């Protein structure tokens, strides 16, 4: 029985490492001023400036394209999709995203 508890504790503690994220640099902004999607590790090196949500009829890709269009309209170079869901009706997609800008030189926030 002790071995089972020891195995359980070992697996539980090893699973905690899944939640740690090492920051990664964000991609360079594009010359066309198109917003780019970033992942959680890349968003750690950026400053959050807002959030957007959309509801569109179509597919999950349509919802992500609508988020990118909103980010472009806001003039931000990066966005991170947080939620993509179709629980209301089949074919009606909701999406939420955070908008990000790079930190200013020297690591100080704007």
At a glance:
This protein is of the alpha+beta class and about 110 residues long. The chain has helices at about 1-15, 40-45, 60-75; strands at about 35, 45-55, 80-90, 90-100.
**Sequence of secondary-structure elements:** HEHEHEE
| CATH-defined superfamily of one domain | Flavin-binding protein dodecin
Give a count of the beta strands, DSSP E runs of length 2 or more: 4
> Can you give the mean pLDDT?
85
Strand order of the largest sheet: 1-3-4-2
What is the helix fraction of residues, given as a range? 25-40%
SSE-based structural type = alpha+beta
* Terminal-residue CA separation: 56 Å
Low-confidence stretches: 105-110
Shape: flat
Number of H- or I-type helical stretches: 3
State which percent range the strand residues make up: 25-35%
Query: What is the CATH topology of one domain?
Result: Dodecin subunit-like
Instruction: Write the CATH architecture name of one domain.
Output: 2-Layer Sandwich
In this structure, how is the largest beta sheet organized? 4 strands, mixed
Classified by CATH, the class of one domain is Alpha Beta
Rg (C-alpha, Å) = 19 Å
Descriptive terms for the model:
31% helix; four-stranded mixed sheet; disordered C terminus; Dodecin subunit-like; single chain; 110 residues; alpha+beta
């Amino acid at each position: 029985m002790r071995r089972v508890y020891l195995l359980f504790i070992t697996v539980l503690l090893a699973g905690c490492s899944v939640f740690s994220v090492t920051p990664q640099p964000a991609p360079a902004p594009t010359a066309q001023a198109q917003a780019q999607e970033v992942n959680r590790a890349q968003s750690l090196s950026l400053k959050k400036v807002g959030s957007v949500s959309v509801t569109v009829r179509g597919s999950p890709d349509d919802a992500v394209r609508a988020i990118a269009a909103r980010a472009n309209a806001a003039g931000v170079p990066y966005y991170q999709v947080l939620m993509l869901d179709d629980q209301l009706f089949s074919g009606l997609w909701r999406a939420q995203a955070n908008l990000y800008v790079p930190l200013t030189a020297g690591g100080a926030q704007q």
